[in-house]
Hints:
Layout: H1 3-12, H2 15-21, E1 23-26, H3 39-43, H4 48-51, E2 56-58, H5 63-76, E3 84-87, H6 100-104, H7 109-125, E4 130-131, H8 155-170, E5 182-188, H9 207-214, H10 216-223, E6 228-231, E7 235-236, E8 239-240, H11 245-255, E9 261-263, H12 272-275, H13 281-290, E10 296-297, H14 301-311, H15 317-333, H16 346-352, H17 356-369, E11 371-375, E12 387-390, H18 415-422, E13 428-430, H19 441-452, E14 456-462, H20 481-491, E15 497-502, H21 510-515, E16 518-521, H22 529-538, E17 604-606, E18 610-611, E19 615-616, E20 621-630, E21 636-646, E22 657-666, E23 671-679, E24 685-686, E25 692-693, E26 697-704, E27 710-717
Parallel strand pairs: 1-2, 1-10, 2-3, 3-4, 4-5, 5-6, 6-9, 12-13, 12-14, 14-15, 15-16, 19-27
Antiparallel strand pairs: 7-8, 11-16, 17-20, 18-20, 20-23, 21-22, 21-26, 24-25, 26-27
Helix pairs in contact: 1-15, 2-14, 7-8, 7-17, 8-10, 13-14, 17-22, 18-22
The protein binds beta-D-glucopyranose.
Amino acid sequence: MEEMQLKQLLKKMTLEEKIGQTIQLSGEFFISEASEITGPMTEMHIDAERLKGVGSVLGVSGATAVIDIQTRHLKNNRLGIPLLFMADVIHGYQTIFPIPLGLASSWNLVLAEQTAEIAAREAAVAGLHVTFSPMADLVRDARWGRVMEATGEDAYLNALYARAFVRGYQGQDLLNDTTKVAACVKHFAAYGAPIAGREYNTVNMSERQLRELYLSAYQAAIDEGSKLVMTAFNTVDGVPATGNKWLMNQVLREEMKFNGVLISDWGAIGELVPHGVAADLKEAGDLAMNAGVDIEMMSAAYSGHLAELITEETLDLDLLDEAVLRILMLKNDLGLFEQPLRGADIQKEKAMIGSQEHRLAAQQAAEQSIVLLKNEGVLPLKVTQKIALLGPGATSKDILGNWSWKGKTEESVSLAEGLARCLPRENLLIDTSTDYFELSETQLKTAFKLAEQADVLVLALGETADMSGEAASRTNIQLPASQLHLLTELKKLNKPLVVTLYNGRPLDLTAVTAKADALVEAWFPGSQGGDALANILMGQVNPSGKLTMSFPRTLGQVPIYYNADNTGRPLTEANKDQRYVSKYYDSENSPLFPFGFGLSYSRFSYKTMQLSTTELSETEELTVRVHVKNDSSIEGTEIVQLYLRDKVGEVVRPVKELKRFERVTLSAGEEQEVCFTLQEKDLRYVHSDLTKRSDKGMFDIMVGTSSDTTQLQTITLL
Ligand code: BGC
């Protein structure tokens, strides 16, 4: 349809029909022919008649259900306006990929795009039109459970990932390619910075910081064409995002040039009341509509009060018309007026969802997400070794991670199953008895018995999936005490000890690292997790992942991130024994494992970098070349990272900022030149007057294997 036709359609709509489009309801409202008014319907001001005009559905999928609901809806809807089906497809639909924080550790944008493409393919065939992804929130606080849904603490990397996910979901031709779904970048804005990591807590930061660090990944998703944006639950400078006119009208729509559909987060319009910026739902609806929120997800401000607000002329009808037009345009962009069932296909759904091809992709993604944190010559394991596989993660299938509602835990591959594929039966002793939170004397004895017979111990530890994700903030980010106890006891056997981890956030691993000879961070690796982890442990795959969020030595350091601002009293090697410098009395400043860190079974060395110039003009390009060599006898992949530091800024600059990186695969003994280019625009940042520009003067260029180990040269911007 042309925009003109959509406008004509809008003209034909009654006020009630317009309001209907702004309402999103969860699946329970649609499951059967609505003949009686149930409790939730009354609360949402919905009756059988109103249901006919509702605009979108949340959390229903499966081709059969979607076809049924849409077909019934179109029979009932006076103007034949189809429903939109939306859901959270976060790291896979049924084939589950590693959690985003894990996937991010691959530093592989092509891979990220492929996972989103497969997720879209499965979601679309199951009838979905929109996924509430990517989450582009920048995160620095490991206490917050939703760091698992983010790609880490770096604005540049987050922006690249946000783009890759949007590309993967939406493809090049959303209108005609029914294997794609529309993306919804979230949670606008700054949801990743709740004070003290407590879920839904206040966010408080300067506008300068918001603009410099937090907005860029949402902007990237918008530039890539993300059709929707979701509001955040939190406040932005005191005003809840969902009713924040400045944030939504000026920043999002005007400056960031977003012209798609803005949807509230679940119940977030209603939450303007407990937030204390609206006296009741009516005021809440008024605030949100004035902030340009087009769709209300699961609260009853629009359904209950928009009509009244408009008839009494508190609210301008034009605002509602604009919102409805944007919703109709989204439906049109998805081709729903012509093909209301879009990709939903019962036959294809059976054949394609969870296919071998998709599972293989999930395995590769998991392999590239795994980060080797320590290895004192124990890994890779050998098939000739007798291995005791112990700990709660040994046989666990709870490895999909949060936000995998369609994933089938029972079909995920456990580590025990993965290792069994690689090892002769007699060389694998599996303990099936341990639990994530308790360790009885009997369980300990069983573990010991197996451990005593083995050459190497593999202890699979971690969090259960529900310990991270939404509403899973933690004030203790160590492993449960029973697991630490098991580790301490097994250590007494003095056998080579490998610890593997399933978890959704950076943990305090200080005690674990001290005891383990090797430490492998597997995150929640998804459907094929056990196969991927086994391949890494056995050396069939060489680990290549690197962290995108710092791991603290102790919780007291959190929030800890590599790109911190310098202080007036920075800690240095020379002043480290002085008291009045910026440091802790009882801990080092540095993290246990820094951003960008991860080991390989190969050994890489870096030659001195070569710069094309040390004096850069505004129109020139700086080329940074560095030779990286694989000094080992096995092929491996290194992620070469380039950081920058603005030595003298108008405002204080971070000690390091990631500017470029590249994944390079080098065969045994191979050397390759990696070449990065930078321009003046890469040196810009948000100044105190909120404009983005660069400062003339000196910049350190650093290249290396992590944010911690880098060689340095200085250039001057003329
Ligand atoms: C979450 C969103 C999610 C929505 C819909 C909310 O609780 O914050 O990220 O998309 O629910 O399921």
